[in-house]
UniProtKB/TrEMBL annotation:
Ranges where the 2Fe-2S ferredoxin-type domain occurs: 52-128
Name of this chain's protein: (2Fe-2S)-binding domain protein
UniProt entry keywords in alphabetical sequence: 2Fe-2S, Iron, Iron-sulfur, Metal-binding, Oxidoreductase, Plasmid
Source organism, top-level taxon: Bacteria
Record CDD domains: fer2 (cd00207)
Pfam families linked: Fer2, Fer2_2
Residue ranges the record marks as coiled coil: none
Claim: Iron-sulfur is one of the keywords in the record: yes
Molecular-function GO terms, alphabetical: 2 iron, 2 sulfur cluster binding; metal ion binding; oxidoreductase activity, acting on the aldehyde or oxo group of donors
SUPFAM superfamilies for this protein: 2Fe-2S ferredoxin-like (SSF54292), CO dehydrogenase ISP C-domain like (SSF47741)
InterPro entries attached to this UniProt entry: 2Fe-2S-bd, 2Fe-2S-bd_dom_sf, 2Fe-2S_ferredoxin-like_sf, 2Fe-2S_ferredoxin-type, 2Fe2S_fd_BS, Aldehyde_Oxdr_Iron-Sulfur, Beta-grasp_dom_sf, TAT_signal
Amino acid sequence: MPEKQKETGPTRRALLEGGAATTMLLVAGLPVGRSAVAAVAAEPTVTPMPTLPVMLNINARNIAVEVDPRTTLLDTLRNHLGLTGSKKGCDHGQCGACTVLVNGRRINACLSLAAMHEGDEITTIEGLAAGGELHPVQAAFIEHDGFQCGYCTPGQICSAVAMLREAKDGWPSHVSADVGAAPAALTDTEIRERMSGNLCRCAAYPNIIAAIRDAAERS
């Protein structure tokens, strides 16, 4: 019987064991050789983005803040200034939970950079009440139970405050029958159209409409 030849190269078992050991080193983040060390050393260093000093007028107060130029107004309000009334819902400008007032106009704070608003008058839900008295829209939302979980409510209220001013100034909507009327008649259909950018996942829409209609009649 011929004598079995001795294996001179690496065995299949040795190759498998070596591959497994290399994988473990990579998973653990350990270098596997000089080439790996050289590759890591050759990686470019990341320079941090410099911060930008911004003076914001929020709820009738001037507040100095330093932010990354890419920081949104919403993240500045919530994460830097502790004004957490404005909510982050979709973070894509589709739900309206982050609505605030800038120079009296409603905007989605998640789509606007804080650095863009130096010198503007910004009003959040925390700044609507005056002298211990709730804003009429806030009071109407409570009276008509215009909220359930309350997550969208700050944006709904801020949007309604601006919307009532728009209607009073005669701004037409997509469903307005008379585009030249001032003030615009706020039917339920008008209110639904004008508030369509603010979503309520609890579907409290009938009560929201009733609250806004009541606030419009009182103002």
